[in-house]
Amino acid sequence: MTVGKLNNRSFRSTRNLSKKASLREVVMKGLAPDAGLYMPVKIPTFPSDFFDILPQLSFHEVSFEVATKLLGKNIPASTMKRIIREAFNFDISLLTLNKNTHLLELFHGPTAAFKDFGARFMARLLSYFLHIDALKGAKVKPLTILVATSGDTGSAVASGFLNVPGIRVTILFPKEKVSKLQEQQLTTYGENSNIWTLEVDGTFDDCLALVTQAFQDPVLKDALRLTSANSINFGRLLLPQTFYYFWAYAELRRKGLNSGDRIVFSVPSGNFGNLTAGVISKKMGLPVAKFIASTDMNRVVPDYLKSGKFLPRPSIETNSPSMNVGNPNNFERLMDLYDGDLKKIRSDIYGTFFTDKEKKSSMKKVWENYRYVMEPHSATAFQGLSSFRQSTNFKGQGVVLMTAHPAKFPDTVEPLIGRKVPMPYGLEEVVGKKKDSTPIGKDYSEFQNFLLRNKDRE
Q1: Whole-model pTM?
Q2: What is the pLDDT of residues 6-37, one digit of tens each?
Q3: In this structure, is residue 81 part of a structural domain?
Q4: Domain coverage including residue 297
Q5: Total domains, the chain
């Protein structure tokens, strides 16, 4: 299967459509110079017969076809195949819960969360570009990756980039607002690694604001080479996270889905990167009837879908910490994808939200009825699909994105099911490790000073 070569400046900012950038610039910089988010100039569409071929392909093969369609020949085919093979060296599975409900397990990577897909892919993509620079003899500053996390993103990025030459990672997480196990994952990489962790006395929104301000700071731009591994970076979001939407469709076809059937994806949503990747997949031709934006009480997007007004607000602490986002920055990408047309957005996206009590009730019912263990984020998406079915009478195939292993949230999960959740190896090995993090406030000058003080540290 071949595709035409795309223009090597085939990306642009959401805030300046005429300002073009190459894939290398997009991945290396993360954020556009005007603080906009990078998007493809044009989203290519697969021909309809591709979806008949899709069920014959493995996950690696599906990933290669989607990556090549989006990027053309900007990355050599052999290199892209290697990146995919090395990045996705773990399982992905689609379990059938009942005749029309399926669970897409995305938590079998090294940090037991779906963020491993994006972080590991981006690490290898960046390594490729740094390797090309080295072959050219370029002498450049180390690349500093800034990551704001409400839980899973930071640990996935740290794991994916651990000891990658030429790259340093600074992770910001909100103090006492992630689970104990998530905190262990974030803070135990050791003082001699290339991973630095900052424990911010604030919320995830405060962490994200610090990172965003850093990218607009001329002092830091002069002193450091900065990029982001948050979902603002195209290399971590729109590319690798589209792969599993296509694979889920292929797996459903293998399970007997008819070629003309359209499916619904329910997505636990915080910063809305995962759902945005799904929308990109649909615009590439994937036959999706609806996306369900399933949130906790941080409900700004469901409220927008209802009222037409986007009103960011301080984040609310819930039992699904990775979704505690009061101002999701990928909302800008969603608006871009639909040209700000509320009617078009509503036609593709259904928004809903749930309390901690409702999530716990759903987790308990699923355990009692199916003996399947969910954690709060995935339970939000499961409840979202149920809500959508009740309100629309939809009886077709629904896929729930399971974004984290339940062992990451034992304090919430285990009392509901009355037993301990076995830990996968990747989680078990961080328990008991020595914590290494630096506490800071939410004042920007403190963050700036930390980065400048450590700019020459190896």
Answers
A1: 0.90
A2: 345 589 999 998 888 998 888 888 888 888 99
A3: no
A4: 92-114+237-421
A5: 1
